[in-house]
Amino acid sequence: MRFDTVIRNATVVTATDTYRADVGLSGDRVSAIAAQLPAENSGRVIDATGLLLIPGGIDVHTHLDMPFGGTTSSDDFETGTIAAAFGGTTTLIDFAIQYKGQSLRQAFDTWMTKAHDKAVTDYAFHCIITDLGSAQLEEMGQLIRDGVTSFKLFMAYPGVFMLDDATIFKAMGQAAEHNGLICMHAENGGAIDVIVQRALAEGKRAPKYHALTRPTTAEAEATSRAIALAEMAGAPVYIVHLSCNDALDKVREARDRGLPAYAETCPQYLYLSIENFDVPGFEGAKYVFTPPLREKWHQEKLWQGLAKDTLQVVSTDHCPFCFKEQKELGKDDFTKIPNGGPGIEHRLSLVYSGGVHGKHFSPNRFVQLVSTAPAKLFGLYPRKGTIAVGSDADLVLFDPNHEEVISAKTHHMRVDYSMFEGIKIKGAPKTVYSRGRAVIDSGKFVGRAGTGQFLRRQAYSGL
Ligand code: URP
Ligand code: ZN
Ligand code: ZN
Q1: What are the N6-carboxylysine sites (modified residues) in this protein (predicted)?
Q2: pLDDT (tens digit per residue) in 255-313
């Protein structure tokens, strides 16, 4: 048998197994896994001794080329997927935004145009719904059939993205009927807005007030309400960017009752805290994203949530804005700082470092959190999210002992700072394949814009 590539002596790590094998790639796919594969006639032979071979990471929460807060996120689908690939992420699910008065199809078409000649790795879309009349409600079923099988709704950002409970409930009913999945931004936007207005009236304008005006109770209340609405609608619900123990408790209670409630957290909530605002001047704007940073003790609760399956996924909520000129839009008023932070590049390294080296969970659980559970929940499995004969050859050769200090000086995201500046990681991708093609080879980018494909996802079928 001839292979385009044979990876020899790999330690294959999936969500369930760890074993030594040779892995053969033919075209887009994994075509053989065996104790030893003949390499004589093969195109390329890679010796993976000492490295882990894991399925490509799947980041289900990114915002590339997204207009927000009076500006546009600074990574587009080319720079964003390149940075993702450097970090071992070979699939991302971004958000197509439906603006008021638009059809859902318009949102989908707009984001397809943004991505199609730029992405270097594969991508899919959720649809953010901001205006749900009867026509758009009807359209949800069609979008699911077209492979956009999940929808993000907001309980925050009144006047921009926020939907009322009746509309959320209707959307959940429709999702339940067509096997879609509702992803919820769970914060009580009404209460937060009152607290924000009070702070501004008291002259509190510095970046840290973004965090101080969004209490954990507002996140917990909305999480609980989202779960209750989903339960009444008979729908599954996926809580995005969960940041605190109060909200975690609500997800745990729901799951203990057997409800199909799921949640993700992000590396910023595992590594950063409210203490990051103790920096001079306007520097704190680097940490303005939503939900905000919490007190440090929440971090360990979130790690435990990942270990015990209260949390199923780690995504990034990558939404980069440069400090110069973009974050600076809010120099005199924290409500004008574009909300979001950059993180697409370091998710695998941060989760491996803190999760596996930090002794919170095994390498298999790491793979489950960054690749397999995202693939299963969002209709990409088994094409993505595992290493098996017939699966896409989205693969990462991962050095579990590589040490590095994260810095904006060396990262590949198109943004002028790092949220994780100075943090030491242990474990990093070396070589990354997207459908059998190397996109990162021993730390160098060797991919090409436009080679990433849109992925039509399957309907929700559980985890
Ligand atoms: O601050 C954030 N998270 N910006 C992106 C939009 C969102 O709510 O996910
Ligand atoms: Zn959100
Ligand atoms: Zn987001």
Answers
A1: 152
A2: 999 999 999 999 999 999 999 999 999 999 999 999 999 999 999 999 999 999 999 99
- Predicted model pTM: 0.98
**Ligand 1 test: best mutation among 63, 75, 187, 318, most atoms within 8 Å of CB?**
63
Which residues have a Cβ under 8 Å from the Cβ of 79 and sit 6 or more positions away? 412, 413, 414
Nearest CA to ligand 1 atom 5: 340
For domain 5-54+387-445, give the fold: Urease, subunit C; domain 1 (2.30.40)
Nearest to 148 by CA among 369, 370, 401, 455: 455
For residues 176 and 182, what is the distance between their CA atoms, to the nearest angstrom?
A: 9
Q: Where are the domains of the chain?
A: 5-54+387-445, 56-377
DSSP 257: T
CA of 404 to the centre of ligand 1 (A): 28
Q: Any idea what the Cα angle at residue 94 is, between residues 90 and 98, rounded to 5°?
A: 160
Question: Is ligand 1 within 6 A of the CB of residue 290?
Answer: yes
- pLDDT digit string (tens) for 44-100? 999 999 999 999 999 999 999 999 999 999 999 999 999 999 999 999 999 999 999
Q: Classify each residue of 393-429 as buried b or exposed e, where b means 16 or more C-beta atoms within 10 Å of its C-beta.
A: bbbbbbbbebeeebeeeebbbbbbbbbbeebebbbbb
CATH class of 56-377: alpha beta
| 319 touches ligand 1 (CB under 6 Å) | yes
Residue 184 forms beta bridges with which residues?
Answer: 153, 239
Ligand 1 contact, 264 CB (< 6 A): no
**Are 253 and 223 in contact, with CB atoms under 8 Å apart?**
no
Contact 41, 294 (CB under 8 A): no
